[in-house]
Design goal:
Order of helices and strands: HEEEEEEEHEEEH
Strand content: 25-35%
Largest sheet: 8 strands, antiparallel
Low-confidence stretches: 175-184
Radius of gyration: 23 Å
Number of helices: 3
Number of strands: 10
Mean pLDDT: 85
Distance between the termini: 94 Å
């Protein structure tokens, strides 16, 4: 058999293997990104100092765990990705401050105190002066929830798991009042 014919068959075999692998890999990848996890670049100052502490053009990249929020289960202190209530084409990343039923002392909302309605949660950026959050648009429907940030994966010097924590003096009033009683 001539060498040229052998190369053609070999090339066709490689092309077939590539195409069949491609048609398997693409649906698997899309399903994985849709159901389990994806990565996102965090831009802006709203989550400083926890995310993007250096500011400027240096952005953190986080792993977003979609599987962990499939039943809309989040806890206070989680950093979550969600569709913006102001612009559904945009995803925002904020910290969960209050869950349904919680009473929240707002920072600049139209009411000084808010009870978070059923099916909603209260979100805030860590950098209050530079964040468009529940203090601007009120409690957010859990239906807008996209994912929970589980790890900082870039830059390498900031690799870490993201654990839920509330900023000082934030969170539901019931929790803060119980803490105050313990100190008396």
């Amino acid at each position: 058999m001539p060498v040229m014919a052998q190369r053609m068959r070999s090339s066709k075999r490689y092309l077939r293997a590539f195409v069949s692998g491609f048609f398997v890999a693409v649906p698997v990848t899309v399903t994985f990104l849709d159901r389990f996890a994806c990565v996102a670049r965090v831009e802006g100052a709203s989550m400083q100092p926890f995310l993007n502490p250096e500011g400027g053009s240096k952005c953190d990249v986080v792993l977003l765990n979609r599987w962990s929020v499939r039943n809309y289960q989040v806890q206070r202190g989680d950093i979550v990705s969600l569709l913006s209530p102001k612009n559904p084409q945009q995803k925002i990343i904020k910290r969960v401050i209050g869950l349904e039923g919680d009473f929240i002392r707002t920072l600049s909302y139209k009411n000084r105190f808010v009870r978070v309605p059923d099916g909603h949660f209260w979100i805030e950026g860590d950098h209050h002066g530079h964040s468009l959050d529940s203090n601007s648009f009120g409690p957010v429907s859990v239906g807008l929830l996209h994912a929970r940030a589980s790890h900082i994966i870039w830059p390498p010097k900031r690799w870490q798991q993201i654990k839920p924590c509330l900023p000082p003096n934030r969170g539901p009033l019931d929790t803060e009042e119980e803490g105050d009683e313990d100190e008396l």
